[in-house]
Structure formats: structure tokens, C-alpha cells
Amino acid sequence: MARDVQFTFDCADPAGLAAFWAEALGYQLQAPPAGFESWEQALEAMGVPPERRNDASALVDPEGSGPRLFFQRVPEGKQAKNRVHPDVRAAPGLTGDERMAALEAEAERLVSHGATRLQRHEPAPPLGAGHIVMADPEGNEFCLD
Fold first, then answer.
1. Which site in 56, 66, 137, 139 is 20 to 30 Å from 12, CA atoms measured?
2. For residue 130, pLDDT beyond 90
């Protein structure tokens, strides 16, 4: 039986990191609970003090097919390389120079939203199509694939 999956990011700024990943993936902020027009309104009604209102954030795929992304504030910073990382499929079906140009364009776009470009891996046929290693605004690695 297949199960629903949620990916959780430990971070210092859940709202900020959620905004980056929403831009990167075309996701949207999860809607507030029923009966509330905004998360601010819901958190106020729940009695969450203002200094705790950025403790968590969540994104959902607007089409309902992708996994939910959850961002939770933790006190410690990132310590080492990720053992698991997302691959953002930015050039599906493209090969060679056309593929790498599409990946470069997406890398530039995400850098303008706070990402850092780490390394480019050139195509190495037959198995290596080429990719770009990036980091989100809090240093979590991901690949443009």
C-alpha cells in the first residue's frame, strides 16, 4: 500500500524558507484552518504568542499530487551535508546543451530568490545527463536535474 509522504525541513526561519520553496516548486502556503481568513487570524485565536508564530509553516502542491512540505524552527544551525536532498526536475526531456541551458536559467532564477549555486556537473553520457548542485537560503543542498 502506497502512503502519503511529507518532507520536513529543520530551519531557523520557517516562513522565509517556505517562501523560497514555494517559488522553487510552484507550491502554495497551506490554507489556514476552516473559519479563518489567514494564518495570523488563526494563530491569534489559538492564543499563540507573536514570538512563536513563525515556529512552523507548510506548503502544499496546488494540484494535490506532490508531497506536503513542512518547515519547523529548530535552535541549531545546519551542521553537515544533507544525506537526503530534493532534486528539482527543471529540464525534463531535454539533453545536452539545451538541458544545461535550462538548468542554468533556473539556477539564476533561484539565486535571485536566495539560493546559492554550489557546483555544476557536466553531462557524461550515457548515464550522466548533467545537473547543478544548489543550496536553499539556509544551506540545505538540492539539485537542479
1. 66
2. yes
CB distance 25 to 136 below 8 Å: no
Q: Tell me if the domain spanning 6-73 has CATH number 3.30.720.120.
A: yes
Domain residues of the chain, as ranges?
6-73, 87-144
User: Which residues does residue 43 pair with via DSSP β-bridges, in sequence order?
Assistant: none
**Residue 25 confidence (pLDDT) above 90:** yes
Lowest mean pLDDT among 23-27, 50-54, 77-81: 77-81
* DSSP at 124: B
Torsion of CA 40, 42, 47, 50, to 10 degrees: -10
| C-alpha cell of residue 112 | 535571485
Question: CA–CA separation, 64 vs 96, rounded Å?
Answer: 32
Half-sphere exposure of 24 (CA within 13 A, CB side): 30
Q: How many residues does the chain have?
A: 145
Kindly report, residue by residue over 30-47, the tens digit of the pLDDT: 999 999 999 999 999 999
Which spans in 2-144 are helix H? 14-25, 39-45, 96-111
